[in-house]
Specification:
Radius of gyration: 26 Å
Distance between the termini: 107 Å
Shape: elongated
Number of helices: 13
Largest sheet: none
CATH superfamily of the largest domain: Ankyrin repeat-containing domain
Order of helices and strands: HHHHHHHHHHHHH
Number of strands: 0
CATH topology of the largest domain: Serine Threonine Protein Phosphatase 5, Tetratricopeptide repeat
Length: 217
């Protein structure tokens, strides 16, 4: 009788342990890692992380999981990926890193998280790229200047971010750059001033802004 009770108790203990393990185990993901990132689905992402999906392999579009969530500014998903050693230096098809994507889409908190984790940026080049992409967010300009961006850095055509913004009729970016101290009398590689460029394109609002900050012909 004693042996029977001991075997019974042992069986109950085994069953209880099995039940606890089953409850504790993470369910397998039901959607792809790509969709989990695109949909900002933290539960599905954590399932992928638990089951060791490769988070350092690019998706078919050339982006990595860290790019996708950085572009969306999803802090909780970023933190989960970083906790599982997502690589900070991966580049997408355009040569951008995750922190570049976060900054260019105006997600400053996400960018700060990535920088604190060890990501690095070229703030001056990003400022030029932001101008080329037609960005208008004041926070992008302010943050990049905080990170050491030089407002007078030029692209391969000799244009500063201000000149690029004028060429693109980007009134808001022109205003943000002027407010941050961009050289109002800068000239392009052909010797054309910012004001002359605005006059050539009949951009009256930008001409007014340039003159207000001291531009001359």
């Amino acid at each position: 009788m004693f042996n029977f009770l001991r075997q019974y108790h042992t069986l109950i203990a085994i069953l209880l342990c099995s039940a606890l393990i089953a409850c504790d185990a993470q369910d397998r993901p039901t959607i792809s890692l790509y969709l989990a990132a695109q949909r900002s689905d933290l539960d599905q992402l954590e399932r992928h992380l638990h089951w060791r999906s490769d988070i350092n392999q690019p998706f078919p579009d050339g982006h990595y999981p860290l790019h996708v969530v950085a572009k969306q500014g999803k802090i909780s998903l970023l933190a989960a990926l970083l906790k599982h050693q997502a690589t900070l230096t991966v580049q997408n098809a355009s040569g951008l890193t995750p922190v570049d994507s976060a900054i260019l889409h105006g997600h400053i908190q996400a960018a700060e998280l990535l920088l604190n984790a060890g990501a690095v940026i070229n703030a001056s080049d990003l400022l030029l790229l932001a101008a080329q992409q037609g960005r208008q967010d004041r926070d992008i300009v302010h943050f990049l200047i905080q990170q050491g961006a030089d407002l007078e850095t030029t692209d391969t055509a000799g244009n500063t971010a201000l000149l690029i913004a004028i060429q693109q009729h980007n009134h808001r970016l022109v205003a943000h750059l002027l407010a941050q101290g961009a050289n109002v009398n800068v000239r392009n590689a052909q010797g054309q001033s910012a004001l002359a460029l605005a006059q050539q394109q009949r951009l009256e609002t930008i001409q007014h802004s340039l003159r207000r900050y001291g531009a001359y012909e």
